[in-house]
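Slide 14.
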Amino acid sequence: MSMQPIYDWIDQHADECIGDLQRFVRQPSISAQNVGLRECAALVRDMMHVDGLPADFHELAAGPPVVFGHLQAKQPGRKTILCYSHYDVQPPEPLDKWTHGGPWSAAIVDGVLYGRGATDNKSGVLAFQKAAKAFLQVRGEVPCNLKFLVEGEEEIGSPHLAAWAAANKALLEADGMHCLDGSMETGTAVPDVSLGLKSVLFVELTARGAKTDIHSLNFPLVPAPVWELIWALNTIFSRDRRILIEGWEEGIWQLGPDDEQQLADKASRVNLQAMKDEWGITAFAGGRDGIDALRARSYEPTANIQGLIAGYTGPGTKTIVPNEARARLDFRLIPNIQPEAAIRKLKAHLAKHGFEHIEVKAYDNAEPPYKISVKEDISQAIIAAATEVYGELPVVNGVSAEGAILRHVWIPCVLTGFANPGANLHAPDENIHLDKYLLGIKYAAAIMEHFGRA
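Slide 15: predicted structure.
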């Protein structure tokens, strides 16, 4: 059947789709601060009910509820797709950097909607819902079985989702899974299609000294936690950007012909200068460029310091030796680097270098990285859908979706996004161009259609 009536319905109901996104963005839902989560979950459930979609709360042992719904195709034997998304968002700080009314305004200026979650991931949540509604309104049925899973802790690593997934394996069984989250690659007008996931391992290192801050006159006689932390960090990562932890890359994923071909295709289409311009830099780190830069971005493990907390940083000066210093790091682990092994190696490394006194707090819910083939049905359906909706092949990445689920129920999973470059994910003035949002709903519908034909 032609998809044009589905696309026409989406265009004819653009005001509804945009109004619902504004309402959604105006509801704060900050998982890191436990702000507005249950209220936002209720809003998701209510919007799904209004759109004629099944949706129920599934309470977790701790944390906000999962919103889950199962919509079956009328025709028997159709494949099942798990539509994963999340209603929680990143903290909006720094607040003074927001324009257009602040992070919860959902203000529309020149066809662009501004607000926290506009791209990550509230437009993705609604793309699934409005696509399904379009099928129900136009055809009276959906082209494949749809399972909707909308969680509320993705932005803090989904710490309570894995236990729920382990207890609900049958509920989650599907033939494919995908997430509509993120933006197109800078310099392109087509979606990214990521056939894997880099795991994110969050770690906090804490160095402690005296029982309280000490007058800096006494520096020669007391421990110096800030320096201890700096010295420890210097043993982890080198100036030439290599991770120095022993055995860190043991068993690392080796690129095959498909992976190299995807990199070559991407290098021929992505405007890397536009990426530098967007970030306000003149060159990539280490002098990388071209295919080497893209290979590093997709396949290189990372050790990033996301924050340092120590001492006095207010106005003026304060002559103290701080009694504590903390560093928050995130390690991106590519396939075959397992989080549990990485934590053990980090602790052994610090002990070997004389820093066993530094406390290592690892957020042990990090999910394992994964990689799937471009030949999977879900991969092919998404590539075909992107080509149909956007008029050319998408940019296919080897690794870039939710490991908490895949740990317990293996489903071939693809991450793809439709937002405009410059969407400012995790930053002030996060936004979505409304034409990209409406096209993203068509993209979601096309994925369902193509997967139903698989």
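Speaker note: The radius of gyration is 23 Å.
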